[in-house]
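ESCALATION

Customer reports they have been waiting on this structure for their group meeting. Please prioritize. Original submission:
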Amino acid sequence: MKKVDRDKLAEIDIYLGEPNEQVREGKHAILRPEGLHRARSFTRTEELLNTMRERSPNPLTVPDDTNPEIFQIAKDIRHHRIGREL
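Update from on-call: job pushed to the front of the queue and completed.
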């Protein structure tokens, strides 16, 4: 199995869209020990979208009940209508 360069992991921007504080903190607790320190949490979809217009994340995680429009938002990200190309 190929080893992951921990220095590269430290450069990954992760956005977590999660309104539940306990779930949000749990996700951070899972990511930190793996060297993924650049995880940002968003409780509101609007704040997440505004941040994505400035800087796109590498991965983005959101629960399906965050916002009724979350699936359309995911499609917009996939088709480069939201976010920036790297």
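Sent to customer with the following note: The mean pLDDT is 83.
Escalation resolved.
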